[in-house]
Amino acid sequence: MHPLSPRAVVKALLALVLGAAVGTVGTLMHRSVQPWGVVVCLVLVVAAGVVARAWSGWTAFVAYALGVLGSTQLLAREGPGGDVLMPAGQAIGWVWVLGSVVAVLAVAALPRRLFVDPSVAPPAARTPAAAATWPTAPVAEPGGPVLDAKDDPAP
């Protein structure tokens, strides 16, 4: 495991804020248009989780997951005036709470190869054989004369 750099800590904190925002929006909006509100909110959890994991790896993803699950659980409680965002006994609330956990775990279970870019060789390291495949023959413009390299007006 790599040591945490200041850059990784900042990314993790930003992912935590992203997770808290996604969890808050999901908790507020999951009952908006039943059942599509909860579906859209769960898709949002998956999409933002993929972004967090692809952006900075496991550290940011764990922070994102803590933000989503923490804000969801915090907002599921009864407020100081007795108001609730997820009334007891409504199945849609359970679908949101348990669905957000499943969505986060689904992103965690995705294979690593989906989040790793393949290495690309810099242009100088490419083989001469690849450079030889570049077209050097005269090129004809549509409706125009065939231009040779010596006729090219570009400097």
Contiguous runs where pLDDT drops below 50 for at least 5 residues: none
Return Rg in Å.
Answer: 26 Å
**CA-based shape:** extended
Assembly type of the shown chains? single chain
Strand order of the largest sheet: 1-2
The computed structural class is: mainly alpha
Count of helix runs: 4
- Give the percentage of residues in beta strands: under 5%
Binned, the helix content reads: 55-70%
Report how far the terminal alpha carbons are from each other.
52 Å
As for the number of domains, it is 1
**What is the β-strand count?**
2
The main β sheet shows up as: 2 strands, antiparallel
The ordered string of helix (H) and strand (E) elements is HHHHEE
Overall pLDDT metric: 83
Q: How is this structure best described in words?
A:
- There is one protein chain.
- With 155 residues, the chain is an all-alpha fold.
- The protein has one domain (6-115).
- It is 57% helix and 3% strand.
- It has helices at 6-29, 36-75, 91-109, 128-132; strands spanning 139-140, 146-147.
- A two-stranded antiparallel sheet has the order 1-2.
- A hairpin with a 5-residue loop joins strand 1 and strand 2.
- The two termini are 52 Å apart.
- The model has no long low-confidence stretch (mean pLDDT 83).
